[in-house]
Amino acid sequence: MKTDALKAQAEGAEEVDQDEYINKVKQSLNAKKEIDDQIALDRLKQKRLKRKRQRDEINKQKKLSRLEANEEFEEGEGEDGDNNDEEDGKEDLEEQEHRRDLNKKKFKRSKKIEEEPEDHSDDESEPEDL
């Protein structure tokens, strides 16, 4: 009987040991998973930060180029960079006049098309008896 009791006690101890072992394994797996998740989050944050820095740098470059363009314009340089605003203004006026002329021609053509009658009924009708 003593041996049976010892065997039962040993089996109970083995079951407890197995349960403890299983719990320890689960805990270590959970801890490993948490660490992996944290690493993934850190990498994601680093990528986002890198993209943000790149966007900021691009925006900074754009802003600087706009400021430089404004400074050049304020210094009196013309559109073509020759410091002759009168000629640039004349060129603009010539372009505007040319566009106006083209628009007038288009308007006249469309007006002519609207004025022409489109009465095709007389073309195919039979001659009337008088």
Please explain how this structure is put together.
By secondary structure, this protein is an all-alpha fold. It has helices spanning 2-74, 85-115, 121-124.
Describe the structure concisely.
With 130 residues, the protein is mainly α. The protein is 83% helix and 0% strand.
Task: Give the key terms.
single chain, 130 residues, 83% helix
What order do the helices and strands come in, and which of them pair?
Layout: H1 2-74, H2 85-115, H3 121-124
Biased composition (Basic residues): 101-111
Region (Disordered): 47-130
Biased composition (Basic and acidic residues): 54-69
Shape: elongated
Count of helical regions: 3
Q: Bin the strand percentage.
A: under 5%
SSE string: HHH
Number of strands: 0
Identify low-pLDDT runs: none
How big is the Rg? 45 Å
The class by helix and strand makeup works out as mainly alpha
